Amino acid sequence: MKNSIKVERAKKDLTQADLAKKVGVSRQTINAIEKGGYNLSIILALKLAEVFETTIEEIFQLEEKDW
Amino acid sequence: MKTKFLLPYRLKIMGWVLFLLGLFLLGFALITETEDPDFLNTEVFALAANTIHIGVTDNPIYFRFVETNLLDEIIELLLIIGGICIAFSKHKDEDEFISKLRLDSLLWATYINYGVLIFSILFIYELSFFYVLVANMFTILLLFIIRFNWVLIRSAKFEEDEK
Question: How far, CA to CA in Å, does A26 sit from each of B9, B25, B76, B94?
């Protein structure tokens, strides 16, 4: 799964720690998502979309290998 | 997804105290090879207590009071209870990543533990194998604690470079 968390974070000028606090997870979680390969829950994805004021599909895109 | 089976966070520190105390007593007993202290000799109720005497067939002992030294039991309980409190108490920031890490670490520790045990079954025998079984009481908890915390610390270090 591709994601643009880092870009969205930069748009809102948030550090990993700031973002983690906003969505109620540990910094390790945000780091794991950005590094890729981490299957986050729908609830967390929805929270991130709300914080970034966008949709889940704008942040996360399926790749060939996800199928 | 929250699990109901985790222990409260405050038990983690108590777990470390118990575990380190058990480790200290174990190390002390092994290194100094002292006799079991007299004040720990006592009678205990045994559901089963069959002794091993070479060449002699003892009558098996069940549901009786027996005389024993409690040092072994104390060390074992400290290590096990301490280990469980460390391993399965909630993390400060409990979230989905930590839950996944906990599951992965538990799987990993179980695989490694039984892998070593299978190896021991094939290549280690007699009294030596008994020592393996004794160690096996603690190794799964130990492996879990090591892996869980190692990955956590490594992830924390990684992100210090990130803004």
Answer: 15, 36, 34, 8
